[in-house]
Design a protein that fits this description.
There is one protein chain. A hairpin with a 3-residue loop joins strand 12 and strand 13. The two termini are 31 Å apart. The protein has ten helices and 18 strands. The C terminus is likely disordered. With 352 residues, the chain is of the alpha+beta class. Helix 2 crosses helix 4. The protein has a five-stranded mixed β-sheet with strand order 3-2-1-4-9. Helix content is 25%, strand content 20%. The protein has one domain. It is found in: Membrane. GO terms for molecular function: glycosyltransferase activity. InterPro entries: BC10-like, Glyco_trans_14. It is a single-pass type II membrane protein.
Length: 352
């Protein structure tokens, strides 16, 4: 799903193309666009997203774009929130995890949202995300910063870089990070307009086939292939290739808890933890909201979270939540209300 934030049309200068002459870097006005990538045939956290959007939110300040299975329609029978009625893309593609179709879906969402010149910020979410704050706080947080929020770091351990990507993508520009990104308009345009980097990813960044016992010794050869997950590298590498990293807060706004586990098909690997009813509590959400920095081991870098030079909590959203966990959050009011703290005041004060 892609939520986007927009600016009043009268503040947008005339445009010769999608890229405006005045990017309005420091403007706090705009529409937030939510881009939602749905992995199932149901947006089961629609109530949580609906609650966020309906609290203190002017409908002119946001819109939602959804990529789902081709032919699937959001209406009264498939979602409980009118914010999602008819918001699915008409040109969606079949998405397979670990394939280039993942980033193709993201590019389609961004391209659709860019058609509206009022859209100035683009937030990619999944169908298992919940907002940690109400809409007005999220809007102020994102719109007060002239930067994109893209988790990005050097990938030095896993060997996902394929030397065949060179010379189009040199190894020193190879990056890794969370796929849950928030982009300013000019960076969204770079993603939507790119063809060269995307083409290389389609050809050389592919998930390694899982171990198949029926293939015997052939598995040894298969497991020597590069195991590349496209949506964990694409935007990060594209921004590095276009020398835009200085314009980015190199962190994501979506919290994920990772757990290293062993499976028959992948061996030892990191997987996102799914929060269920039992381990979703006010204390858990409070702890997530209290995170104020992220440490990147491969770069020995500590990223202190800030927006527009003001120190803030790192995360606005969290994942992955099961349906019963999301219902507990709503029923107990854990994500329903927000007490404006000094941090929130500091962000709002930067608007003046």
């Amino acid at each position: 799903m892609l939520p986007s934030f927009s600016s009043p049309l009268e503040t947008i200068p005339s445009m010769r193309s999608r890229r405006s002459d005045d990017e309005e870097e420091n403007s706090v006005y705009g529409t937030l666009r939510a881009l939602v990538r749905v992995e199932a045939r149901r947006l089961y956290l629609d109530r949580a997203l609906h609650l966020c959007a309906s609290q203190n939110a002017d409908a002119a300040n946001f819109s939602i774009y959804i990529h789902t299975e081709p032919g699937f329609i959001f209406d009264e029978s498939t979602t409980r929130s009118p914010f999602f009625y008819g918001r699915q893309l008409n040109n969606s593609v079949k998405v397979m995890w670990g394939e280039s179709s993942m980033i193709e879906a993201e590019r389609l969402l961004i391209g659709a949202a860019l058609e509206d010149p009022a859209n100035q910020r683009f937030v990619l979410l999944s169908d298992s995300c919940v907002p940690l704050y109400n809409f007005s706080y999220i809007y102020d947080y994102v719109m007060s910063s002239p930067r994109s929020f893209v988790d990005s770091f050097l990938d030095m351990k896993e060997g996902r870089y394929n030397p065949k990507m060179s010379p189009v993508i040199p190894k020193d520009k190879w990056r890794k990070g969370s796929q849950w990104i928030t982009l300013v308009r000019r960076h969204a345009e770079d993603v939507a307009d790119d063809e060269n980097i995307f083409s290389v990813f389609k050809t050389f960044c592919k998930r390694r086939p899982p171990v198949d016992p029926s293939k015997g010794e052939q598995n040894i050869k298969l497991q020597k292939q590069h195991n590349c997950i496209p949506d964990e590298h694409y935007v990060q590498t594209l921004l590095a290739m276009t020398d835009l990293e200085d314009e980015v807060e190199r962190r994501t706004l979506t919290y994920t808890l990772w757990n290293q586990s062993t499976t028959e098909t992948e061996g030892k690997a990191w997987h996102p933890v799914t929060f269920n009813y039992a381990n979703t509590s006010p204390q858990q959400i409070k702890e997530i909201k209290g995170i104020d920095h992220v440490y990147y081991e491969t770069e020995l870098r500590t990223e202190w979270c800030r927006t527009n030079s003001t120190f803030v909590s790192c995360f606005l959203f969290a994942r992955k939540f099961s349906e019963d966990a999301a219902m507990r959050l709503l029923n107990e009011g854990i994500v329903g209300s927000f007490d404006a703290t000094a941090t929130a005041t500091a962000v709002i004060d930067n608007h003046s």
